[in-house]
Amino acid sequence: MSKVDDFLNDAAKGRTTVLGAHSIEEMVALLKRPRKIMLMVKAGKAVDDFIEQVLPLLEPGDLIIDGGNSHFPDTIRRTKYLESKGMLYVGTGVSGGEEGARFGPAMMPGGSPQAWPLVKDIFQAICAKTPEGAPAATGWARMAPATSSR
Fold first, then answer.
1. N or C: which end of the chain has fewer CB within 10 A?
2. What pTM value is reported for the model?
């Protein structure tokens, strides 16, 4: 048995509606359109490698979300690249450590402005809340152009 099958037959059994996929192709095929794919990998080359692996499987309007705290110039570059192919991209800073794991992280998204409506409800549901109950993912980061000296 695979790790996917083990998880489906143990931790996910009877508790939730989780679908298992044994390949990237199968996973993409299971997603509702527009697809939202969130990756949590180390910032850098791994993000670019994953984008190139999944890109041929996507359609215009699909969204890739990077939750690996990539440096904002990489988010700007990837946003332009994916938008040129008809896709959307979100680079998301995720902060919180152990407290974030238990109570929800602070999230700082930026990228394709058209993607915010696709992720807003999800991000605000899972992120930390202020003492007043407001979500700690309240808006879209305004990113300086890649040519900025800042």
1. C
2. 0.83
CB count, 10 Å around CB of 59? 11
96: buried, middle or exposed (CB in 10 Å: 19+, 13-18, 0-12)? Answer: middle
115: tokens are: 């993607």
Q: Answer whether 136's CB lies under 8 Å from 128's CB.
A: yes
144 — pLDDT class (breaks 50, 70, 90): very low
Starting at the earlier edge strand, list the strands of the sheet with 36-39. 36-39, 63-66, 88-95, 106-111
Q: 49 versus 136: which is more confidently predicted?
A: 49
Q: What is the spatial distance between Cα 29 and Cα 14, in angstroms, rounded to a whole number?
A: 23
> What is the spatial distance between Cα 71 and Cα 6, in angstroms, rounded to a whole number?
35
In whole angstroms, what is the distance from residue 103 CA to residue 84 CA?
37
